[in-house]
Structures are given as C-alpha cells and as structure tokens.
C-alpha cells in the first residue's frame, strides 16, 4: 500500500551518527594528554554506572530540576573519573570541560554508512525532515559539524522539548513542527521501545534500523525493519 508520507523524523545516535570510539577510550586518551594514566576498561565501566545513576536521578538532563545538560555532563565526566581513581579536583574540572567540548566535534562522531546519501535522496523526493533525539543542546552543532544539519527543517532534542522518548509528547511536538498528522509521518530509529514502539503509539509509521545479527529483539514486521539505512527508500516509495 502506498504510504502517503509528508514528514520523516530521525533519531541521531546509532541511526545517523555513531561514536568513533567507545567512551572509555576517549576519556582515557584525554586523561593521558593531561598526564594521567587511567585504564579505558575501568573508565568504560565507571561511565556506564554513573550515566545510569545520573539518568535515574536527573532524567532528561535534570530538565525539571534546574540542572541543565552542561552541568549534568560535567558531573558525569568528573564522577566517572573519580570512580576510576582520579581524586584531583582541578584535574577533574579540566577533564570535564575538555571532554564536554570534544563531544561536539566531528572527530568524535562519524556518519553511519548510507546516511548522507539516504537523507539527500529523501529530500530530493520532497519529504519534510526533522530530528527527534534524546540529546542535549549540543546536537545542532554536532549535526552541522558532521555536515548533516542542512537536511532538516527542525532539530528537536529532549532537552528542548522537555520530554524524552518514549514519551509521546516529544513526537507530538515534532508533528506540529513538521506540519503533519501522525499517519503522514514516519520515524526512523534504532531503539525498539524509544523509537519504533513510541512513534507507533502516537499513530506514526516507524522503521527500526536493526543490523543483521544484532541480537534478537522483540518481533517487528520485516517490512518495518531496515538492515541498513539504504533500505529506507524502497520501504517508503512502495
């Protein structure tokens, strides 16, 4: 059946962009540059634990608690290093500032295979396009530096929206920004509950980017699964 789509909304992390190296490795490299020896594996473990605790204590970058994403991230970085044995507060402050800036850089992120081509072709076909991402205010800059920003009419982050996926209200804001009804819109992302199921819950179409051999997640109709981004065009041009 012909999908009469007007608007495509996109997740970013692990859909359009991915980190060039694991967090533990980039944190360890920055520590080395400042003369500190910290094991990447220890930092990776600490980061995962701290990130989980911070997300639980201050959801969506502490939006409702007056924290804000910059302070949220500085605290995560410092606490990750503290857990990995770095106690020098001056060093921690310097590491946190430097890494907060590094994660805005195109040296830190790379565009996923097929992303640039697929976005360009979707625009040529006349789709309106927007980003819906559980991300902080740095996302506009990151997309610009990775040469993707021009594909999108809007970039809606959870920090700006005040709601994080899977909350349907972030998708409702995106539909208003894109001037489309839910049945005229499709969301593309890599997370089953935050992207695929959440978009469908507000009445949108959705496609799940799921690389082959990526572990078995919940059942999704095969015509909704994208083994690569390049598969999208065939799905939406039916």
From TrEMBL:
Gene3D superfamilies assigned? HAD superfamily/HAD-like, Haloacid dehalogenase-like hydrolase
Q: Might you report a single GO cellular component term?
A: nucleus
Superkingdom is: Eukaryota
Q: Name the InterPro entries for this protein.
A: HAD-like_hydrolase_domain (IPR051828), HAD-like_sf (IPR036412), HAD-SF_hydro_IA (IPR006439), HAD-SF_hydro_IA_REG-2-like (IPR011949), HAD-SF_hydro_IA_REG-2-like_cap (IPR044924), HAD_sf (IPR023214)
Q: Which SUPFAM superfamilies match?
A: HAD-like (SSF56784)
Q: Which Pfam families match?
A: Hydrolase
Signal peptide bounds: none
Q: Which family does it belong to?
A: Belongs to the HAD-like hydrolase superfamily.
This protein's name = Haloacid dehalogenase-like hydrolase domain-containing protein 3
The species is Cinclus mexicanus (American dipper)
Gene giving rise to this polypeptide: Hdhd3
């Amino acid at each position: 059946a012909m999908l009469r789509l007007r608007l495509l909304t996109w997740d970013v992390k692990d859909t359009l962009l991915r980190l060039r190296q694991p967090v533990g490795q980039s944190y360890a490299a920055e520590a080395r540059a400042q003369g500190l020896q910290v094991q990447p594996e220890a930092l990776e473990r600490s980061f995962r634990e701290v990130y989980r605790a911070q997300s639980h204590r201050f959801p969506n970058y502490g939006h409702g608690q007056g924290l804000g994403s910059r302070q949220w991230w500085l605290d995560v970085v410092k606490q990750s290093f503290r857990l990995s044995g770095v106690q020098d507060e001056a060093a921690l402050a310097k590491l946190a500032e430097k890494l907060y800036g590094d994660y805005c850089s195109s040296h830190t992120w790379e565009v996923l295979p097929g992303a640039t081509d697929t976005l360009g072709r979707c625009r040529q076909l006349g789709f309106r396009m927007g980003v819906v991402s559980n991300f902080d205010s740095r996302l506009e800059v990151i997309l610009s530096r990775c040469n993707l920003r021009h594909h999108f009419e809007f970039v809606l982050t959870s920090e700006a929206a005040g709601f994080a996926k899977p909350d349907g209200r972030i998708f409702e804001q995106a539909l208003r920004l894109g001037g489309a009804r839910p049945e005229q819109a499709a969301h593309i992302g890599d997370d089953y509950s935050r992207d695929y199921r959440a978009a469908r819950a507000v009445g949108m179409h959705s496609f799940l980017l799921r690389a082959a051999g990526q572990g078995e997640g919940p059942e999704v109709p095969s015509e909704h699964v994208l083994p690569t981004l390049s598969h999208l065009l065939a799905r939406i041009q039916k």
